[in-house]
């Protein structure tokens, strides 16, 4: 057959778009992803020095290698109920351009996943909502859904 067309796997490659790595954290039973470009460090729970007259989600400050870093409880910041810290609880140190270093208490750090644009579903944002929308999209990885956090919005004062 002269007119036969041979299709190879190389012809079937679909452009998945830019790939981004996210660190997957747990808050309760929910999984959230934070863009790995913001991650400076992940440390075990440690003594947090309280600071008076701050919002309840700000737990205080820690001293990490001579640097004083404010620590926020991500559960409280997202209006979730506060729970006791466990052995799995961690403080994720993020470097956010306009805020510098900030620590966030999370229930657990799970893994790092790489998601391409086609694996991320953007969430619709209703501009009339009073509450800031912390989640900009939902990632699909191995049959699991991961809510992707916009850390610039999370860090804003409310």
CATH level-4 homologous superfamily: CheA-289, Domain 4
**Cα-to-Cα separation, first versus last residue:** 70 Å
User: What is the string of helix and strand elements?
Assistant: EEEEEHEEEEEEH
List unreliable stretches of 5+ residues: none
What would the average pLDDT be, to the nearest integer?
A: 86
CATH class reads Mainly Beta
Structural class computed from helices and strand pairing: mainly beta
Oligomer: single chain
Strand content: over 45%
Q: Any idea what the radius of gyration is? A: 20 Å
Task: Count every beta strand, where a strand is a DSSP E run of 2 or more residues.
Answer: 11
Query: What can be said about the biggest beta sheet?
Result: 6 strands, mixed
From the spread of the alpha carbons, the general shape counts as elongated
Report the helical percentage: under 10%
DSSP summary: helix tally = 2
Walk across the major sheet and give the strand order.
8-1-2-11-10-9
CATH topology name:
OB fold (Dihydrolipoamide Acetyltransferase, E2P)
CATH architecture descriptor = Beta Barrel
Question: How many distinct domains?
Answer: 1
């Amino acid at each position: 057959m002269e007119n036969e067309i041979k299709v190879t796997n190389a012809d079937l490659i679909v452009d998945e778009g830019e790939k981004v790595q996210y660190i997957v954290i747990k808050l309760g039973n929910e999984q959230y992803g934070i863009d790995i470009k913001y991650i400076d460090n992940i440390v075990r729970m440690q003594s947090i020095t309280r600071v008076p007259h701050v919002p309840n989600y700000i737990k205080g400050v820690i001293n990490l290698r001579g640097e004083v870093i404010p620590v926020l409880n991500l559960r409280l910041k997202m209006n979730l109920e506060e729970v006791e810290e466990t052995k799995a609880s961690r403080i994720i140190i993020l470097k956010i351009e306009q805020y510098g270093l900030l620590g966030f208490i999370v229930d657990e750090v799970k893994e790092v996943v790489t998601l391409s644009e086609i694996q991320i579903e953007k969430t619709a944002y209703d501009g009339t909502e009073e509450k800031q929308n912390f989640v900009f999209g939902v990632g699909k990885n191995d049959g699991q859904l991961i809510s992707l956090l916009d850390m610039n919005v999370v860090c804003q004062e409310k």
